[in-house]
Design a protein that fits this description.
Elements lengths: L4 E6 L5 H13 L5 E6 L12 H6 L3 E3 L15 H8 L4 E6 L2 H9 L2 H5 L3 E7 L9 H15 L5 E4 L9 H17 L3 E8 H10 L9 E4 L8
Parallel strand pairs: 1-4, 1-5, 2-3, 2-4, 5-6, 6-7, 7-8
Helix pairs in contact: 4-6
Length: 225
Amino acid sequence: MGTRVYVFTGHYGSGKTEAAVNFALKLKKTEKNVALIDLDIVNPFFRSADAVELLKEAGIRVEMPLFANTNVDIPALTGNMAALIRDQEWNVVLDVGGDDLGAKAVGRYSDDIKSRDFECFFVMNPNRPFTKDMESATKIFDEIEAASCIKCSAVIGSTNLLDETTVDTIIDGLPLLEEMAKSKNISIAYHAITASIADELIEKHSEIFNEDNVIRINRTVKRLF
């Protein structure tokens, strides 16, 4: 498989940024050139820029908005981001800001993204209030697609209750994820699973979960409130 652009979209609090960061770390195990671009210029509370040292130590290139992680909260996208998205030598993971407002940032790069092989993921946590049922989740999904000018090609299940997440939590979230994927005629590409229960989940439900489709989530993004 050649290089690709992987776009991570989703509602605020969906676990999108953690999924993007940990996916980049997973991808780096099999791919030489992996980069992560922090396109979240909307929400200062959860940023992949928080994980920059971890990513760099793993050999992952990181591009982030100017002023990210400083007390000057007027982040701006850089020219390096567009050049990197177009560069066929790189696998590029894009962490996009939440909802349609954040998705507008990736919209400016939509032509560059669509000129390459790409996947656009809708990261969804059925336990969040704005994606807890089909009506609300579909509204968010459609708004993100419209704002980004990119069709989502797959769902990423990010079912969790933070530290209270159990195997049953993940299983209980499956029906809504499957209904969403079916309604949009797309697949569930990955499941972002709390690392502490990933082994147990794979062992108990190997017919659904495996090392290929599980993104192990180790929390890397700090809360600023």
